[in-house]
Amino acid sequence: MIELRGISKVYKQGGREVPALQDVSLRVEPGEVFGVLGQSGAGKSTLIRCVNLLERPTEGRVRVNGQELLGLSPEALRKARQGIGMIFQHFNLFSSQTVAQNVAYPLEVAGLPREQIRTRVAELLALVGLSDKAEVYPARLSGGQKQRVGIARALAPRPRILLSDEATSSLDPETTRSVLALLKDLNRQLGLTVLLITHQMEVVKALCDSAAVLEQGRLVEQGKVLDLLSRPGTRLHELCYPPFSTGEGPVLRGGYRVALTLSGEHSTRPILSTLARRFDVDAHLLEGSLERVGEARVGRLLFELTGAPEAVRQALVFLREQGLTTEEAARAA
């Protein structure tokens, strides 16, 4: 479990104070994959480095695996960090060492016996699909393979928490998907708690159970990914779903144009045909999309209802009674 309370970080530059984080609080539950989304300069890297105290916050509290980290002695902090693995955007591998040697490094630093290290390295390389690359040097690996080495090295001390600092931002889309699938598998197999930062919306949708949006050092919102994406008006919804391109066109006479977000079981129901049959209205589909978010699906529809005014009103009431959020886009005069 990770709990940050009232985290602020101020850097001093040339006699000026530059705030990087301002009163940020978030909680990551055990076994959860939690994403922090934000653009460059939002404070994401500073935030994740506050979790293992690579950056010490100016104010606030950091609680990880049941321990308050800020009050620990240097020795106790080193021991606590063994339970927190970290992977980086630019891999941070030793170019003069083989894949196996890179993975073994944190175990050697910890003073484990040579045979135990050899066994653990073999387990980790098998876990990330690189058993055949043990004696290869990083220069001969693809970007995705380098990141898998970084993941194996981060997992070497058997951490309960894995931090990911923009781990896929330098990878191509296909490689990104394979690394995300690996992280999800590791989360399930090992019960890892994963906190990742990213500016890639697809990473949050594919991997995260919960998410937070960070802007200019402040936490704008946080919650379950599916809940935030399903509710128009949330910042995550706005970032993921820009306005429909046809939303400003002319509305049919007597029509009512509406945008609808569907998730869970609603995403598989014949909403438009149900409206037509039950309320004797016509539902003209103008634009739509359907995508997978984790294990669920989220759909977006822009359609126009036409018919008798009372019938249209009842159709809209029906949608809201089903727990669906409707956004009025335009109404005919």
Automatic annotation (TrEMBL):
- Any one cellular-component term (Gene Ontology): plasma membrane
Does the record's keyword annotation contain Hydrolase?
A: no
Q: Where is the ABC transporter domain?
A: 2-241
One GO biological process this protein is involved in is: amino acid transport
For this UniProt record, give its keywords in alphabetical order, as a comma-separated list.
Amino-acid transport, ATP-binding, Cell membrane, Membrane, Nucleotide-binding, Translocase, Transport
Q: Which InterPro entries match?
A: AAA+_ATPase, ABC_transporter-like_ATP-bd, ABC_transporter-like_CS, ACT-like_dom_sf, MetN_ABC, MetN_ABC_transporter-like, NIL_domain, P-loop_NTPase
Q: Which SMART domains match?
A: AAA, NIL
Give one Pfam hit by family name: ABC_tran
What are the protein's GO molecular function terms? Answer: ATP binding; ATP hydrolysis activity
> Which PROSITE patterns did the record assign?
ABC_TRANSPORTER_1, ABC_TRANSPORTER_2
Similarity field = Belongs to the ABC transporter superfamily.
Q: What does this protein do?
A: Part of the ABC transporter FtsEX involved in cellular division. Important for assembly or stability of the septal ring.
In Swiss-Prot or TrEMBL terms, this protein is called: Cell division ATP-binding protein FtsE
Gene source species: Myxococcus stipitatus (strain DSM 14675 / JCM 12634 / Mx s8)
